[in-house]
Each structure stands twice: as C-alpha cells, then as structure tokens.
C-alpha cells in the first residue's frame, strides 16, 4: 500500500478579460483515509493470526527434524558396532558402554581413547559418516548426552544345520542407543539417580527387552544385536564340519579302493606325530582312537585331506574341532574293527569359543 495517496482536483474557470479559461489546481486530500486504515489493521490482524498458528508448527517441525537426525546418527553408530563385533571381537560381542570423567556415562564409545580396539570402533563410526563431535552427544552447546545400553548373556538354541542336526547354544547380546535431553554438565538427570544412567528411559533387561521403549523426553532409540552374527558363525561352523566329514570319507574310500578286497584296515587318517589309540570308548564319548584337536600343531590330519588348518581347525569363535578316527559308541567292535566309523565334535556352547568338554551333555558331534 503506498505511503501517501493524494487526490488532485482540477477546476476550470472562464477567463474574464480575454475569453480563455483559468486552470486552478487544488490538493483536496493527503495520507490514509479512515477506511484505508481500518482495512490495513484488519489485514495485519489476519496475518498475525496466521503466523501465530504457524509458529507451533514450525517448532514441531524443527523438533521432528532433530529427532530424525539423532535417530539416523544412532543407526549409523549401531551399524559400526555390528561391523566391529564381526571383525574385531573374537566371540562376536558388542563393545561395552563407556563411562568416564566429564559427565560421560554409558556412552557408545570413548572418543579420547587410543587403544587399538577403541580406535577400530571410532574408525568404523567415521566410515558410517558419524562426526566425532556427536558420537557421545548431540553436538549442541549443552551437549545433550547419547546413551548406549548393552544386555549380555542372552541365549538361543539352534540346530547345527539350521533345520536339523544336534542343538547348539548361541550366546548373543542386545544393545540400544538413544538420545536424552540431559546436558553433559549441570544436569540432574546425568545420571538419573534412580537408574544410574542418563535420561528417563528404563534400564534394558532380559525381562523387558521385548517391550522396552524410550521414555519422554528421550528419543531416537535404535537397537543393535549380535544374534544374526552368531547365527552366521554357526552356519560357517556347520559348513566346516560337513566339509571335514566329506573329505575324511573321500580319503577313506580312495584308500580302500587302492587296497586289496580282503584288506579291512581302518583307513581314516591319524596324526603322524601323535596317537591317542587305546582309549576306553565307555569313558571317551565312544571313541577308541581320539579325540584329536584338528587345529593343534602336532596334528596333521587336515593336511592329509588337503584342508587348511587355520580355517578348518577351529570354529569361527576359536573353539577346537576334535576328530575321532575309530568311533565305537557301543564298545562292541574292538579296536579298528569293521564297520569303521569316525566322528567330529565341538563344544555345544559354540559361541563361547571353548573346547569340547568330553561330556555328552556339553558337546555336540556328528558321525560318519
């Protein structure tokens, strides 16, 4: 609207003496009229009411953008942790939450650490485009803290060959990463006195893991688990045992074909520098000759069947794979008597990386 409106009126008078006309100009109005002012006030009022309605929406959109950004960061951190568990942890475990000085409690990582394990985790986070400035907080002036909880000791029973075979026990971990509104310093909720961790959300437990969620104003929760990794390692273990079984059978049959028809020798290969023959099958899980640690330096069985010891000598967790070359579970055949059977065993709790115990309750085995 123009700042000033002027109406100019022209009045023409006849010129008395010379018969012409006299043009007279008069400024009849300047500034706003009352009607124009009223219209302006009404328009301003309408705009003000519209803007007043928009301000809460803009605030809500800003909060939504913040929550989305923090959840995306948490997802990137979770991916980095899964990668770290698969490549840096012998047992496939998640990194432990970090608590230190300066208001850092139950954080995803120690950003100031120089240990090789922490540096590897930090590198994984950077590869997932997580800025070090927001790895344990939101990057705001108050540094609202990011929280990471980890639940350990969860187990799942799974058949060795997915749908069949003896049951193995997998031990896995579950974690959750989320953002709080607790500042690093000067905050009464860092930590929460009733939880011993920052924020308002409950402690993650085995009992509540299926229903756990954040409590306002905490936000952006992302879960991270090693169960898929443990299942994958079990698949690798099963493949290794199947391959060893197949190659031992192949070796036996090739040796038998090259022998005379009357030769009833047990052709399953033994270790060149070690013998465990003469065991009582009743007290040795049915084995008369074994159990040989296929990953041991003085056991060359895998070399005889052309399998690399570094790969096939242990499970992916580092647990021993053991081999019996004269398996007689009933104890009725006698040493190296036909029919010839072999067996391979591992610890039932595969993800602990432990060696077989020699107890049927604690080990699993396959025969051939």
TrEMBL record:
Source organism superkingdom: Bacteria
Gene3D superfamilies for this protein: Glycoprotein, Type 4 Pilin
Designated name of the protein: Tfp pilus assembly protein PilE
Organism: Pseudomonas luteola
Stretches that traverse the bilayer: 38-61
NCBIfam families xrefs: IV_pilin_GFxxxE
Keywords assigned by UniProt, alphabetized: Membrane, Transmembrane, Transmembrane helix
């Amino acid at each position: 609207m123009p700042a000033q409106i002027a109406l100019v009126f022209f009045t023409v008078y006849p010129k008395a003496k010379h018969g012409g006309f006299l043009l007279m100009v008069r400024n009849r109005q300047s500034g706003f009229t009352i009607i124009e002012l009223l219209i302006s006030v009404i328009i301003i009022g309408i705009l003000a009411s519209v803007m007043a309605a928009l301000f809460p929406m803009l605030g809500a959109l800003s909060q939504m953008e913040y929550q989305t950004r923090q959840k995306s960061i948490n997802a990137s951190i979770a991916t980095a942790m899964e990668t770290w568990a698969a490549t840096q942890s012998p047992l496939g475990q998640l990194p432990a939450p970090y608590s230190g000085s300066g208001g850092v409690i139950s954080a995803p990582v120690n950003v100031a650490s120089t240990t090789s394990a922490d540096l590897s985790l930090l590198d994984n986070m950077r590869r997932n485009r997580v800025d070090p400035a927001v790895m344990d907080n939101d990057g705001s002036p108050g540094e609202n803290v990011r929280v990471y909880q980890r639940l350990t000791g969860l187990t799942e029973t799974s058949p060795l060959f997915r749908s069949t075979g003896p049951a193995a026990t997998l031990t896995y971990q579950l974690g959750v990463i989320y953002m709080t509104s607790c500042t690093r310093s000067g905050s009464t909720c860092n930590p929460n006195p009733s939880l011993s961790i920052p924020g308002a959300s409950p402690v993650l437990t085995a009992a509540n893991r299926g229903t756990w969620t954040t409590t306002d104003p905490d936000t952006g929760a992302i879960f991270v688990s090693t169960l898929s990794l443990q299942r994958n390692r079990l698949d690798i273990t099963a493949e290794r045992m199947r391959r060893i079984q197949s190659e031992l059978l192949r070796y036996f049959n090739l040796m038998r074909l090259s022998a005379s028809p009357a030769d009833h020798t047990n052709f399953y290969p033994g270790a060149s520098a070690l013998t465990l023959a003469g065991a009582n099958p009743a007290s040795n899980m049915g084995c008369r000759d074994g159990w040989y640690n296929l990953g041991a330096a003085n056991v060359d069985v895998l070399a005889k069947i052309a399998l690399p010891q570094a790969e096939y000598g242990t499970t992916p967790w580092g647990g021993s794979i053991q081999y019996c070359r004269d398996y007689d579970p009933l104890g009725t055949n006698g040493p190296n008597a036909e029919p010839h059977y072999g067996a391979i065993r591992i610890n039932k709790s595969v993800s602990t990386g432990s060696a077989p115990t020699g107890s049927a309750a604690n080990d699993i085995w396959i025969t051939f």
